[in-house]
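User: Please fill in residues for this 553-position structure.
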């Protein structure tokens, strides 16, 4: 048994789970916990400049490191500021543990300063939200939080801790994680033999089968198995729009993301497929517009997912397989080994060549003001092969996604279905901390950057090397595109002015430049990637060179 304060016990539990960083802001109700972190050399408190960004940094770290991450805020406004970041983590299935302080128990329900029901606020956007009501509960609640966050479909968990309990002394048994949860999801033995045989027979009998790879492939790190299966059966592979890295786009069988803002070759493939094997894929709106027109009328769908409510949600399926993707793929790979390779259909390779040639023409559009598609293609040409690519939301992102040539899983991050403008830069900071040996590039708009400028100081203070490339169109490009298309170009609420973001970066102690001419862009980007520390490239782009709106009205 170990005897210590509750604050120290919580820190010990975090340390046992391998937590290295806690992202957050201080507050009077969490000072005991911060003091315990300060006295633990294996943990580091990373001060952010807004609580939402603490949640986003934890989110980026969790996905990048394939582990749970922790953010911390005080009660009341500190907790409510976390909500947007935690909601994004919930939609993206990111295992983030949100710890919030709470006033002493004896002032609850007495309209105390900053009092609010944090547990109820977090409940709809977490897998579990609870308050510690007795000191002795604290270690078990922290352990349960990690168990819930990491099991099944991962996601965030919230713990509310009254400050008087943090000061109390308890005795408890220190336990390593394997004593109270499986360190990883236990692999299944394999599929039911009849079901596995039926899926494989469907693939082999199809005239033109196509694989759609989604986010569960990434969470389970199953991309290498998918590569084996695709190569054995000569299967073209497309991805969902938010998970470009579920299959490498540079692979001959990789056709990139589907959807209105996806790759032409990917959309041609699924429009031609007679069988679509959807592996861990959520048929999200940005990928499908919830339209059957994306597929041929007679396309059969085999949907494999560990999330039962996703199977058949948007499109009726020929067969639904409730299984994690990793054991499913391992079973199919085992069954196809030794079989003669299927002759590759020549059409996908031809479609891909056509698409890459079309995209390459963006690199010839040397106009002033700089076209966003030219900037996206120029960036594609200089980003290092090992880069962690983090993308914020905005009209520019539609061009950037078309230029992301992913090479391996876990190298492309965004706020996924929550589409949080302003999430990109803190996500990138957390992702870089999760994989410090990789180059990290954040691509974002000027509206998003203005929301998170304070984190430039965080990046410099903490020595986090990130290259931020700002597509600066002096406004909210997506709003402008909708008002252009559907409101007879009556622009309202989408135009503003900006400072020189390169100057701002230098004021914070980083490196920065602003680019106005297309011939300056490649050199500025190469220089930024050679910088040690924070680098910002502010690219002034044509505000009216807009990608079409995703939604129709």
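Assistant: Residues filled in for all 553 positions:
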């Amino acid at each position: 048994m170990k005897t210590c304060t509750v604050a120290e016990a919580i820190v010990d539990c975090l340390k046992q789970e391998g937590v290295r960083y806690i992202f957050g802001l201080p507050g009077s109700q969490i000072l005991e916990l911060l003091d315990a972190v300060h006295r633990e050399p294996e943990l580091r408190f990373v001060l952010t400049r807004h609580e939402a960004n603490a949640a986003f940094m934890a989110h980026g770290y969790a996905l990048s490191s394939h582990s749970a991450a922790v953010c911390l805020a005080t009660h009341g406004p500190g907790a409510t500021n976390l909500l947007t970041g935690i909601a994004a983590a919930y939609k993206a299935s990111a295992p983030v543990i949100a710890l919030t302080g709470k006033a002493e128990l004896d002032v609850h329900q007495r309209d105390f300063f900053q009092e609010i029901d944090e547990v109820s606020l977090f409940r709809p956007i977490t897998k579990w939200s609870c308050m510690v009501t007795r000191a002795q509960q604290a270690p078990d609640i922290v352990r349960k939080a990690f168990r819930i966050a990491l099991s099944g479909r991962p996601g965030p968990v919230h713990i509310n801790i009254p400050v008087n309990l943090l000061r109390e002394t308890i005795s408890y048994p220190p336990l390593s994680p394997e004593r109270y949860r499986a360190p990883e999801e236990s692999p299944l033995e394999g599929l039911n033999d009849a079901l596995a045989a039926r899926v494989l027979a469907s693939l082999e009998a199809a005239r033109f089968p196509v694989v759609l790879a989604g986010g569960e492939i990434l969470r389970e790190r199953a991309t290498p198995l998918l590569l084996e299966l695709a190569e054995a059966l000569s299967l073209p592979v497309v991805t969902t729009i938010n998970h470009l890295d579920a299959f490498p786009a540079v692979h001959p069988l990789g056709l990139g993301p589907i959807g209105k803002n996806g790759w032409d070759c990917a959309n041609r493939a699924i429009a031609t497929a007679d069988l679509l094997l959807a592996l861990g894929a959520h048929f999200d709106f940005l990928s499908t517009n919830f339209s059957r027109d994306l597929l041929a009328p007679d396309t059969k769908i085999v949907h494999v997912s560990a999330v039962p409510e996703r199977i058949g949600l948007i499109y009726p399926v020929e067969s639904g397989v409730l299984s994690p993707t990793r054991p499913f793929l391992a079973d199919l790979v085992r069954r196809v080994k030794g079989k003669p390779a299927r002759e590759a259909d020549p059409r996908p390779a031809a479609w891909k060549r056509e698409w890459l040639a079309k995209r390459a023409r963006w690199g010839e559009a040397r106009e002033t003001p700089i076209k966003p598609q030219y900037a996206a293609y120029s960036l594609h040409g200089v980003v290092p092969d090992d880069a962690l690519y983090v993308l914020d939301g905005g009209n520019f992102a539609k061009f950037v996604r078309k230029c992301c040539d992913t090479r391996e899983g876990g190298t492309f991050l965004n706020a996924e279905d929550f589409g949080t403008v302003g999430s990109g830069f803190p996500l990138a900071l957390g992702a870089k901390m999760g994989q410090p040996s990789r180059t990290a590039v954040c691509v974002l708009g000027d509206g998003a950057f203005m929301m998170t400028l304070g984190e430039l100081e965080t990046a410099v203070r903490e020595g986090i090397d990130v290259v931020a490339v700002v597509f600066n169109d002096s406004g909210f490009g997506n709003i402008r595109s909708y008002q252009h298309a559907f409101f007879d170009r009556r622009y309202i609420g989408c135009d503003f002015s900006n400072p020189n973001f390169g100057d701002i970066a230098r004021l914070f102690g980083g490196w920065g430049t602003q680019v106005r001419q297309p011939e300056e862009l490649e050199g500025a980007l190469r220089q930024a990637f050679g910088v040690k520390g924070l680098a910002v490239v502010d690219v002034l782009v044509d505000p009216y060179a807009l990608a079409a709106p995703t939604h129709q009205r």
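For context: The chain has a mean pLDDT of 93.
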